Amino acid sequence: MKLLEATEKDIPLIQDLARRSWENAYADILSEEQMEYMLSEMYSETEIGNHLQNPDYHYYMIQDENTGSYEGFIGYQHHYEEKTTKLHRIYLVPESKGKGFGKIALQFLNDKVSENGDHRIILNVNKYNAARNFYESQGYEVYGEGIFDIGRGYVMDDYLMEFLIHK
């Protein structure tokens, strides 16, 4: 597996991978209407383009070196809070889960966070998303909960998780 830094030319690929992973991960959690709304807001060309213009926000494509196929992506933002990087998104297509791509991507993130002087990684995960178990298996802990209004009467009901980088 390798991680390749994304550019504007990768926006359609990010959008496709997000849709494929969301249709699997959130099928039993979100209504189809909420999923469509969130994908259109969070993964619009404008939104991702704005992220890519921010020097602290990074997207990396997760590629299987054996097949050349893209298995997912990771998006994170250094210095989101003091000494803290926020993992905004990490998604894998369903057929690539369980192959170690997520673990490698999180280790890659740990290395990038250390290189940039942050000491903590935070993320939000839907309370009903099985990904929470994955994050806990990688050393993340729940430190809070939050309900976030995202518009059109929809909310995100999340656990707030953190991982502390030991220097």
Automatic annotation (TrEMBL):
Residues 1-166 form the N-acetyltransferase domain. It holds the Pfam family Acetyltransf_1. It comes from the Bacteria. InterPro entries: Acyl_CoA_acyltransferase, GNAT_dom. This is GCN5 family acetyltransferase. It comes from Chryseobacterium vrystaatense. The lineage of its organism: Bacteria, Pseudomonadati, Bacteroidota, Flavobacteriia, Flavobacteriales.
